[in-house]
């Protein structure tokens, strides 16, 4: 019952976003495209388009004792565009919060079990109450990370998603909003 309701919410959210967006697309839907990479050195790769780009998946238990289901995806922002927002559409988290991290380039250099944010561009915890919020500013202010403010320019970035509560699968859906770089004034 819970999974059916979750899928109804995600499908409705994705349809509403895409109906109002002339371009963009689905980055990845785990229930259709398969599990995102669990390997921080070989993330799933996708190039984003202008507009709304939705990533939907699950994390939590991995089937391996004491190891969470890790989701890694490298997103490429094309030249002339920027990643303006990472909007949490809907989330079902274990405990109080889940984790999102961003690193410049095609890998995540930080092991999940020895977290040191110094190599990350940014990171944040998020919870169900953050649904509808742009998490990009909070990610840029992640303590101990390199940090950034504003939109992320054209480049490859790897996203790390994780939920340490392995009691059950938890769902997430993000909208990566890509916009043209504003013309100089």
Report how far apart the termini are.
53 Å
Instruction: Determine the strand fraction and express it as a percent band.
Output: 35-45%
What value does the Rg take, in angstroms?
Answer: 16 Å
Class by SSE composition: mainly beta
Number of strands: 8
Note the total helix count. 3
Average the pLDDT over all residues and give the rounded result: 88
What can be said about the biggest beta sheet? 8 strands, mixed
Instruction: State the helical fraction.
Output: 10-25%
Structure report:
With 185 residues, the protein is mostly beta strands. It is 15% helix and 40% strand. It contains 3 helices and 8 strands; from the N terminus they run H-E-H-E-E-E-E-E-H-E-E. It has helices spanning 2-19, 30-33, 136-140, and strands spanning 24-29, 44-47, 51-59, 71-91, 98-104, 122-126, 152-162, 170-180. Strands 1, 2, 3, 4, 5, 6, 7 and 8 form an 8-stranded mixed β-sheet that branches. It is globular, with a radius of gyration of 16 Å.
